[in-house]
Structures
1.
Amino acid sequence: MTKPSLTPGDLKRRDVLIRLASVCAGGVGLSYAAQTLKPGGRPGEQKSGKVFPNLAKQASNVTRISLISRSSQFELVKAEAGWVLPQSDFHPVANNTLSGLIKALTDVRYVRTLPPPTQLDAQVSQIAPLKGGDGVLISLETKDTAQVATVTLARRGEMTLAQLKGDEALYEISTVDWPPLDSPKAWLDLPKFDIAPERIATVELIRPKQNRLDIVRRPDGGFAPVGGTPSPIVTDIALILSRLEPQAVMAATKLRGAPAFSHSTSLKSGLIITLDGFESAGRFWVKVRTDTSKAASPEEGERWTTQTSSWAYAIPPSFWTQLMTPTLSLLQASP
């Protein structure tokens, strides 16, 4: 059968249809490629912008923050006088650490949705601590227990992963400055015993059944025991206050009885700061006392009293060993 010949008009219409078909096919291909090349791989899973866009407005309503990891579990609670840590006898929380967490949660943004894990990498992708993962679960609640923000965070190299409540997907999120999330101590507003060594004039160490040890500053700036020879251990005892970093804190009322030692540091300004030592529950603690009666500027001592008078602070065992060394051994210690 002979094919009918095409007129010039037919040829023109055919060319137009071919071009339209090509454009449509290209559009479909581009659309498919755009979906398959999106980070995360699944259309509909993509999220963008801030992870908690309303947190800035809701932060003032938060009254409880819980942090759970494989190694620790603790809460921060908003009391009348400010935020406290209940498990440390309601000791005040450091404001800068708390504000750092709120800022980080407010600023963090989605980067991409991660593909679902395979059986081979499921263990690596598990971040929920309640399921054995290595992440930290953070939950912010209001007074009526309404959850303002809940997220589990974990690190994978330079990448930060997040998993939201009720969402099995994992997201990569932007890098922000997170405070320490799995250490209760990092949240406490502990005193900084950073008394400069050059401010120390004399040190007195009193222990039951031991002679008193007096330590004085030498002309060269070092320290020596009265009636004995200079030695490293005596210098260490003289500088205890300037090197003390509390390991933990509890209410001072829990420590009863007479102290095992009293270590008094007299500053050149006349202020005297005394550490009274106690042993309790296998740890070593000190209470802090200040004497401003001879201080040129009593304001410093008053600040110490306000911050420390209700609390006892855990000290390292090495400090306790030094402070319990017999007086005769300290006087005869080798230079």
2.
Amino acid sequence: MPAAGPRPTLTAVADRAGVSIATASKVLNRHTDVAPATRARVETAVAELGYRTPGARRADGRRTVEFLVDVLDSPYAMEVLRGVTLAAEEVDVDVTVSRVRGGDRPEPASSWTRRLVTARRTGAIVVTAQVTGTTYASIARARVPVVVVDPLHLTTPELVSVGSTNWSGGRTATEHLLGLGHTRIGVVGGPEASISAVARVDGFRSACQRAGLTPDPDLVRHVAFDRDAALHAADAMLRLPDRPTAVLASSDVQALGVLEAARRLGLAVPRDLSVVGYDDTYLAAWTNPPLTSVHQPLQDIGRVALRTVLGMDEGRLPDAHHIELATSLVVRDSTAPPPPAGPGGHR
């Protein structure tokens, strides 16, 4: 977060927006008799200057933390939100949820940080939003405590984030499959731009190297954290003449795509193909068969993120700018020893 300095004044906001002090005050107090274009100029000036009204909390004195997410139907995000909400209840803090627009026209950080300032939020927790140097600059100007959960990019070390031990998670899952006797293992990894996805694949490669195996490049595919993308990647691998006997996915949602690809090709899990997911969301226990998955302590990540935001609001800096919680492997029914080679086997 930015170093302490003189706080910008309402006069400075009015000057930057080219309006009167009275008009700037109306915008900050949410009066409705202000033209939309004028309101936008004032809100932009507030975000650019990092202006916060004295005691920038709600009128009733309650603290409110905003939970911003780009995918509203993500089991991963909902598990994090559960942890945030439970932690907030313990300290009597309100939580609001809003969406950061993604896709082909992602919402700029200046837009959602402006919303945080004008809504007088205590701070924010951002899940899977695109994080760049520009993002951090917008957060710094707004002077609002922000914690990013497992960012896709982490190009700014000053940004505070919470995640898990992704490299270790990928390695542990691979060691489980190697221990069952699998030597031809496919990986449906997340996007190569995602630091967490790359770390999981690096953990996979490390386990293979330790076992004296060289991963087949045709069996390592980087796709979106998406069921359909994983389905297509897994289908291509499972149609190879020497197909894998196990597939490690980088999320439970991706694992659903792998299971569907296997079903369409008439492969039984785990008799013909072992499948491992990642995250250990509620989906893992609901699949058929129940999914072996790397457990990320998502609720604990949410709790830590909430406590960190509140601590930053009170002037306490976290011990580290990136906090990692330990992963573990939950073994269920989707993994077993590989099928025998030859007639009735996988080759």
3.
Amino acid sequence: MILYLLYVLVAVAAIQVIYFLFFGLFAFDKKKRDAVIDLPVSIIVCAKNEAENLKILIPQLLQQAYKNYEIVLINDASSDETQEVIERFQKENDNIKLVNVENNEAFWGNKKYALTLGIKAATNNYLVFTDADCVPASRSWLAEITQHFSNTKTIIIGYGAYARKKYSFLNLLIRFETLMAAVQAFSYAKLGIPYTAVGRNLAYHRNEFYKVNGFVNHIKIRSGDDDLFIKDAATSKNTAICFSKNSFTISQPKTTFISWFRQKRRHVNTSSHYKFIHKFLLGTFYSTQVLFWALAIFLVCTSFWMSALAIIGIRVLIQYFIIGISASKLNEQDTIYLLPILEVFLVIIHFGIFMANKISKPTHWK
């Protein structure tokens, strides 16, 4: 019986290695850019009770080293001073546009409704999205991400990093999870089957929004203005990835496990609406992760411990190599030092999220 389990471990490890080799599509990808052109761009930010964060974000958006752009700031029925903060900046900068959204009974608390109004109000066709609670990594953020637009590439997927916190295992875990999610997102896009993006660093041409009737296919699902839109609009021909370090956005991570767990529940909840191919591939990866570590830990405690350790070692070495290169590209090198430990924690957490979402639906946009 134990011998058969060892055979299963070999098979599961082989599947995992195939996935890691597939992730090499991103790890070994070289940055390719089309001709640089000064596109007229609209930056779109949806804010609900984000007065303090906007005081930090807006000055950094205004300092972007880019000639032709406007900033569309959406006040989504805020109850704090969000509108007043935007109006103060608007008086001093003629490239800021304010869109006020009032609560609508049919779309109560729906971020997609607010974003739709912002997109319609935007002057320019090239739209770059970010969130109120993050900042660009550099003054060339806007230039870096728009350089990937071309006649064929009209959806650009960027990287949304989290700020580092010293001596915090939770921070390391959050950034490792973000790294692994980005590696998968970028690799699938390189393969020609894009499935997700982060709304805090995403760009697309307005035509792509109208081709799929905006968010209408999932308007009743409160989350998913990024990944479910990508599901509808992104193809192998129209999607590009942007991962230069100056193109990142940086967000402040959650500081408690409970708040992060709730955030991940909201993000994972939309995955049930993905295409079958994506659900199958993602599900296979995560299920083989669970099987691998469950079998590996069990077999290490048996007479086959040497064989189990050898299998673990080969699999982890390949993982270190591929994910290590990816981490270097995304400036997350320190997350791989404890890679196996972080991975085991994530496997347990993802299982917990799966079970929690089965029991009850998570809450959404503020």
